[in-house]
Each structure stands twice: as C-alpha cells, then as structure tokens.
Amino acid sequence: MFDMMGMMGKMKEVQAKMKEAQEKLKDITVTAESGAGLVKATVNGQRQLLKIEIDETIMNVSDREMVNDLVVAAVNNAMLTAGEQAQEQMRKSTEGLIPNIPGLDLGGFGL
Fold this sequence. Notes:
It comes from Pontibacter akesuensis. Belongs to the YbaB/EbfC family. The chain has a domain at 24-95: Nucleoid-associated protein YbaB-like domain (Ybab, Chain: A, 2-Layer Sandwich), CATH 3.30.1310.10. It is built from two helices and three strands. The protein has helices at residues 4-24, 64-93; strands at 29-34, 39-44, 49-54. The chain has a three-stranded antiparallel sheet with strand order 1-2-3. A hairpin with a 4-residue loop joins strand 1 (29-34) and strand 2 (39-44). The chain is rod-shaped.
C-alpha cells in the first residue's frame, strides 16, 4: 500500500537538502577568460556575474565591437562552467533522495 506519510516526510527531506545545496552554490566561483586572458569574467554557482576584468591594453582599442565580443564570450564561458558545477553540486547534495532520472533538469530549483 502507498505510504503517503512516508512520502511527505521524504519530500520535506528533499526540500531541506535542496535549500541547503542552493545556499552552497554561492560558494562556487568560476572565472573564465577570452582573448587569451584579455577579458576575464567571474560568476558564482547561482549564475550571478561577480566581476569583469578587462586588460588595460585593450581599453584603448578602437575596435569596440571586438571588446564587446570578448566580454560576452568570457561571461558565457563562465556561466556555462558555473552551471555545470552547480548541477554537479545539486546532484551530490540530493544523491539518494531523488532518483537518477536521465535528462532530469533541476533548473526549477534555482539553477
């Protein structure tokens, strides 16, 4: 017979673990670069941009579009890597609580 009370207890445990894991995502920081290090972007596991560093040698470049492209590339690379690390952190934090379902997207839980 279906154990509704047991299932509700398990859901509360999963919610608590997910909340704890989401708090830990703030501690994940990723820095990615573009243009051989001319532009660096740092983001956290919650996919928040924390810092942009632009090498002074390109600050005087007249090709503004190139600088913009380098910034976008660095931010996108950092966001991608941070997202991957955040998913791994969430997977580890909920291991054994949520079934390992291929293609399960935890994006709705703050990722």
